[in-house]
Amino acid sequence: MSDAEGSAPRRSQRERKTVEKYGSQDAKRKRQGTDTEGDDVDEVTDPENERDGEIDEDDVESAPRLKRKPSGAGGRKGKGKAPEAGPPPAKKPRVAKTSGKGTGRRGRKPAGVDGMFDATKLAEDTKISGDNSLFNAVVNPSAAVQSTVEDFLESLSQSPALAQAELINSVFRACGCNDSVDSDQVMDYDGVVDALDDFTEGLKKDDTHVYPLTSKLPVFKRFRHSLSEFIERLISSSAELRLLYTTDLMSTLQTWVIAMSSSQLRSFRHTASVIALEMETALCDVAAKVEKEAEVVGRQKEGERKRKAGNKGKGAEGREKELDAKAKEIRERRSKVAEFLKEFVDGVFVHRYRDLDPTIRAECVRSMGQWFKKYPSHFLDGSYLRYVGWVLSDSNTQVRLEAVKSLISAYEKADYIGSMHHFTDRFKPRLVEMATGDTELAVRVAVIQVLQAIDGHALLEDEQREELCLLVFDEEAKVRKAVSGFVANVWQETADERLVGRSKATQSDKDKAGIKALGTLLVKWSRALDKRAQGSSNEDDEERSVTSDERGSKPPRLKEMASLLSTQQKSRTALAVEALWDEIDAVGDWETLLDVLLLDHSAAATQSSNSRGKRKKGEDGPEEAAVDEAWRLEEVEEGVLLEVLVAAIRKTRADAAGSKKGEEETIVSDITRALIKALPRLFVKHQTDERRIAEVLVIPQLMNLDMYLEMRMIAAYASLWDDVTKQFLSHSSPIVLSPAVSTIRHLLDATSLSNTNNTKVLELEDELSSSLREIVGGRDELEVASFSEDEVLSLASICARLAAFVGMRNMTAWMEESEGGKQSSAWDIINALVDRGRLGYKEEEAMVEQAIQVLTLHIVWKAKGLTTAAEPTEEEGKYRETVREQRDSLLEKLLEYAVGTQSNTQDGVKRAAFQNLMNLHILFCPVQTVAPDGTNLPTASLSLALDDEAQYRCAGFIQAEIERYSEEVIGSVSLQENLADDEDSAGSEAEDNSGSSKGKTKQRKGIQEPRSTSRSQLEREYLFIGTMTTFLRAIRTGAINVRHADVLLAHFGRLGPSFDVCCKVIVEQVREEGLFNGNGQLVVDMVTRATQESFSLLLDGIENTEEHSVALARLLSSCFLMRGAQLAVIRRLDPKFVNEIHVDSLTWIGKRLATYENNDNKRGRNKALLFFKVLIPLLAAVDSRDALRIKAHMEQVLAQAKVQPSATSKPWEPQRLYEKRLGNVVSKDKAATSKPRKKKALKSTELASSDDDEEHEVAGLAGETAAPVKSRPRPRRVTRATAAELTSEESELTEDPSGNEAANVSTPNARNKRGASVHSEEHPSPLASPTQLKYSALTNGHTTPKQVQKRARSEDEESVLSGLSSGLGSEGRDVSVSRPPVVEGEIQIKRKRIRH
Predict the structure, then answer these.
(1) Rounded to an integer, what distance in angstroms lies between the CA atom of residue 21 and that of residue 3?
(2) How far apart are CA 340 and CA 258, in angstroms?
(3) Region Disordered: start and end of each range (predicted)?
């Protein structure tokens, strides 16, 4: 090697990096021809000059290969000049050119001048030695990989051991290891394991060890790709030169790499696994080429046999022998390659595909996918496919995704599908499960592609296909889009089945059959989806739910739901239409859809074929003839296809909006013309079904109404008004009323048709007025009059129509019209209906709800007419008084119904009254009557405030609603179940009881977590959240004081994410009050009440764990401080308020602990101790002084509760953690404020502790570290001047007598500096107040402190105290209990001790 290193390297005319030689220069195999010849060849064929990126088979084949020198004259074949006679010229070393193309990988700066690769700098930056030229070539982005491979193979043929040592050392460098092996060690296969053990032991001691595959350094950004390219070229080139079969290259690599892949060191294991997998991938290419050569030779032999039969001769026999020899040589190579493949699979893949590191597992599965693609004849077998199937259940997302991707490439090989049947049958259920329920969206999309490929080979069952098709209704848009191709195939099959047996089916027949197939499939899938979601197989429910959308619900709650859900919500059918738009032609063909829907599908289907044959093309009146069975629709299919029609027209218009202006107008005009003709027939056909007529009522909103005027079809427009009005007056369901009102608004917006609009809307108002007075006519006292059941239903329907219509149009004049007193106004009639809410009739509940809504909307419209004039006119004053009277009258009723004590009101009426009560107070809230610029709004003249008693009642109503919702939907654990758990765990220790109950709690929680999502539950949640958001709006606007929001906060984390969002809004407001408005006491009240009420749910057995309370505490901790950039504290709540929160909370839990302790209720006590877990997040803004106060108060509380904390008991672990966090706060503050000083450890025997954190905690509570220990400190003389200081120090020493923490010890300097501020009368000791009941000393400043024995101390505590005493002695202070007290006013003189 020394000769090689000292000799001058060969110079190439191409720009390349200088590569070190692998053997003696004289021993190198001489290349025939001149350098010019070889370089010319390189210039023509080197793919590195052309492109950069992933290496494919073409790249490998185009690379130049070293050929065996034939026996005899002749050089390498190439396109360069022929070699000249005579000896070859001296080779020049390769140097990099400063310019030129094709110097390396594309996009990289060429090596040279500024871009020269510096191995020394690489070694400095990465701590990886740069002594290996192969590794440097892989890292160098400008190196020519093929030239590196050629030089290595040349050295391998001459000096195998040295070359292989260099290769293995490059593997070590890729692992981040600087150790090396020599030519003897590399061939010593028996010593490989021992050598690797030595290397890994050294690397384990290096904590900063990095390796290229995981390094984030820029120099290693392309290392993975470069390594793959190098290995691929090495294997392919060595195979062409036959060095792969004739040398020990593979044996050496396998021995070392396989051994390294099992190393405990991740860098070795990961890098070796990647190298082994890349070598296997390269070997797959080699094996595939060998297989191809074998096929070619086999065909040649077969052709030679045929020729031999007709031409017997020696030439034919020689040719046959040559082919036999070639076939034998190919078989040998194939056998060796198969052996290499098996060795890597058995030695690396089988063990590493289940490695603990998910990155290594993903590498294995990804490589298996490449093997499927490159060498399918060998790897597409059950023995290899099973590994991919097993990792489909891997916990890591990337591993699962790589497994699915590998299957995509596997199923693309249609020629090998027969060998995959067993694997497919075994893992189909798992694939379907992943497609429907995997947690990662990317995995679901990829699995759908696999299942679509499997279905292309007809390997899926019908149930599995249907389950996959249900994903067209999935909530994720990407999933719906991914499954659209699969659904399109199913639709095409169904459409073709409709036309089976018809030889001459026209395009129109195919389109109609496609519409029928689409409707059939959507109905089928909708029923299957609803059956799974609701668990109901009732045919009526299914038919109702098939056409239901997100606005739909069950009849009893439709009226409540309509006020919460938007009319523009997309149905699941509309979502499916968007997903299938580009895949199924029938979805976007709205014209054919409209034609099919206009057919009379209820007509008899007899003799349909004869009728079809007799009809001529273009004949009108399609309903007169029977509809063909191929596209005759069921009623439920008509409903679904109506949704498809509306969605298709919307989609068409949306797509046209992005096109040119002329095209958009043309498309909208075509749609309008077709719908003008079709709408009357659709109204007549579907007017009896509320769900279908609701879809028909949406259609006019998609039209350009001005075309009625352009086409001179005013009569048709008036007919449209009549149809819409008829449906509005004949239906009472919000499903119909909501789109009808939206359509009426759209009609009124057509200003060009205002004359017709004004006439028709007045007719509608008159009809509403007459219908209302007709029912109540002849009755004097409506508040107590009796109504029949039909009359109640009619009144409820009229009120529902009025509520919908008044919400869209100002009807104040209509409401107050009394024809000069000749008849009662609509306001008086509806007001009387509202008064009937006191009667509490269940059948009148819906009527009263809608009547309340009508009156509230009337007040809102009236408020819009108020003026801001300070001195209103007589007319304005009269108007204002009218509004006040009407408002106050309504508010009185609402307050009585919502939170009154004497009312016998139904729940629905209570809820409606509460929401409207809040809305009116929000409208007239004094805070909301002032504009941002300071001017008064019109409502300022009628401002309104809710008194405190009413606010408390409103909070009580919210509390009742929460409890009702929790019981109905969430459920709770009964006390009987808790008692049963106590009986099951009887006879065990308290700790065991806690542990077992905790385990059972987790199990119950695991069962309750997957809550059902039935439609009824979603409806109930909508109603509940509607009530909560109304209360939240009142709080945000100031109508309700924010202090009442603790009712909501107490249930944070247990009623769903929507409820939690409401709680977060409240916390933001509380935070603003505390940090910006200085209302810290509000924060104290809110935090203490909310956390206590939340934790009471656990103590009362309503909740199983404390997780919801801990989550609430984390949320509330944001009220204590505000952070800015780089977590800098911008605002902080006054520490006294945080201290008050902890003191109040500790007092509260202390009382609960005392109760449980007195009753000997260990289970309750253990639950109560979990409250310390809740307090831990609230320590965010506590400083050291407050931490000491809180700690002392906690000890006092525990002492008064007569409970003794345990140092080892598991139930006491939250308390110990809370105490430890307090100590950390003290130590952190002391460390931040104290000056750095030289530290010396105290006596190890006195401060020994097994817990390092406890040592830090003790040191923190002790304050600053002790001063250097002196052998014999000199006692200080006590004088009048020093007496007060000394006693102050003594009081400081006894302030914190906790068993777990040492007292606060200070150095003399620090003591003198802070003594005046900390221990003066104006600033008493932090612990003086909470501990004066426990300690009788410290009364006059001169009495010896006496410590009260609260509880037995542990050994660790005693060692802490002993260490503390030693530290105090070193300061020259004698705190011995035996020292006599000093009388005030006397001077005590102590004798000095002389040290010898």
Answers:
(1) 10
(2) 12
(3) 1-115, 297-323, 532-565, 980-1014, 1223-1379
> In a 10 Å sphere around its CB, with 0-12 CB exposed, 13-18 middle and 19+ buried, how is residue 737 labelled?
buried
The rounded distance, in Å, linking the Cα atoms of 558 and 548 is 12
Give the integer Cα–Cα distance in Å for 313 and 1286: 126
State the CB neighbour count (10 A cutoff) for residue 1394.
5
Task: State residue 1307 phi and psi, 5-degree precision.
Answer: -75, 160
Report the phi/psi class of residue 607: left, alpha or beta, with left for phi > 0 and alpha for psi in -120 to 50. left
CA atoms within 13 A on the CB side of 968: 14
CB of 244 closer than 8 Å to CB of 235 = yes
1232 — pLDDT class (breaks 50, 70, 90): low
Tell me which residue has tokens 């390349």.
16
- What DSSP assignment string belongs to 1357-1385? HHHHHHHHHHHHHHTT----TTSPPPPTT
How far apart, in whole angstroms, are the C-alpha atoms of residue 738 and residue 149? 76
CA-CA-CA-CA torsion for 778, 780, 782, 788, nearest 10 degrees?
Answer: -40
Distance CA 239, CA 290 (A): 10
The helix/strand count (H/E) of the chain reads as: 61, 2
Token pair, residue 1299, equals: 């068993």
Rounded to whole angstroms, the Cα distance separating 548 from 735 reads: 10
Give the whole-angstrom CA distance, residue 1264 versus residue 1192: 20
**Amino acid letter for position 256:** W
- What is the C-alpha separation between 1095 and 1083, in angstroms, rounded? 18
Residue 841 identity (one-letter amino acid): Y
| Rounded alpha-carbon distances, angstroms, from residue 780 to 143, 614, 784, 836 | 103, 67, 9, 14
pLDDT of residue 500 exceeding 60, the answer is yes
Question: Tokens in use for 1115?
Answer: 């949320």
Q: Is the distance from CB of 1028 to CB of 1048 less than 8 angstroms?
A: yes
- Please report, rounded to a whole number, the percentage of residues in the chain having pLDDT higher than 90: 30
What value does the mean pLDDT take over residues 718-743?
A: 91
Looking at residue 1106, the DSSP 8-state letter turns out to be S
Percentage with pLDDT > 70 across the chain: 71
906, 974, 1055, 1184, 1331 from 1190: Cα distances, Å: 49, 35, 33, 10, 11
The string of DSSP codes covering 687-714 is TT-HHHHHHHHHGGGGS-THHHHHTT-H
The two structure tokens encoding residue 179? 């150790």
Compute the CA torsion angle 997, 1003, 1004, 1010 (nearest 10 deg).
160
Q: What six digits make up the tokens of 604?
A: 């008899």
Which is nearest to 103 in space by CA: 134, 56, 60, 146?
A: 146
Is residue 1265 predicted with pLDDT exceeding 80?
A: no
Q: What is the number of alpha carbons within 13 Å of residue 88 lying toward its C-beta?
A: 17
Whole-number CA gyration radius for the chain:
44
Q: Is 751 exposed, middle or buried (0-12, 13-18, 19+ CB in 10 A)?
A: exposed
Tokens coding 1360? 């802490």
Burial 967-1000 (b: 16+ CB within 10 A, else e): eebbebbeeeebeebeeebeeeebbebbbebbeb
